[in-house]
Specification:
189 residues; alpha+beta; Phosphorylase Kinase, domain 1; globular; transmembrane
């Protein structure tokens, strides 16, 4: 054995630790991926979906929902969704609930940016540069409500912390969540 063996061993240990503790988004699993396996609706969507690899708490539960954001019309007593059959008019919502504080977590919303951006202007307090040259729009109210909005490909994404018993989430933490997003599933177009 040569005298360089301890140095090589230490270098390998350090490199292994750097890889293990790396923040590389490509190496990280989607947050709550195990809990989301039952959400078959995610697999039927035509558009690509990006989700966070990082949330700042241990996940107790993930819930999934969709809601219509397209044009509507009132006919008699009924409010009709005019284009229910078109995927672009449906937003998806995932809520990641914290194990430490069951009323707290983060809400992640994905919608087709052509629908949302054509129909409303997004109010914000601060324009934020995200990793990869993306631009996000952050807002926080006096009541503790916060959100960060940005686009990836043809989707608009919103991260909104929910904090029942806790202090509002630091803006830097919300940015870290947004920057952790990676492709969950490619679009089918």
């Amino acid at each position: 054995m040569t005298k360089s063996f301890p140095f090589v061993l230490i270098a390998l240990i350090v490199m292994g630790a750097m890889y293990f503790f790396s923040d590389s988004r490509e190496d990280r699993e989607i947050a709550g991926e195990e809990e989301m396996r039952e959400f078959t609706e995610l697999e039927t969507l035509e558009r690509g979906i990006y989700l966070p690899t990082y949330v700042p708490f241990e996940i107790a539960e993930v819930t999934f929902g969709t809601y219509y954001v397209g044009p509507r019309e009132v006919r008699g007593d009924t409010l009709l969704n005019l284009h229910e059959e078109e995927e672009k008019y449906w937003s998806i919502e995932l809520i990641y609930f914290s194990k430490e504080d069951l009323g707290s977590g983060i809400r992640v919303v994905n919608a087709d940016s052509s629908v949302i951006l054509e129909s409303e202007e997004i109010p914000y307090d601060e324009k934020i540069e995200l990793a990869g040259g993306k631009v996000g729009y952050y807002s926080a109210s006096d009541y503790g409500d916060q959100f960060l909005v940005w686009t990836i490909d043809n989707g608009i994404y919103v991260v909104e912390p929910m904090h029942r018993n806790a202090e509002p989430m630091p803006k830097e933490e919300i940015i870290k969540i947004a920057e952790s997003f990676r492709e969950y599933r490619e679009g089918k177009h």
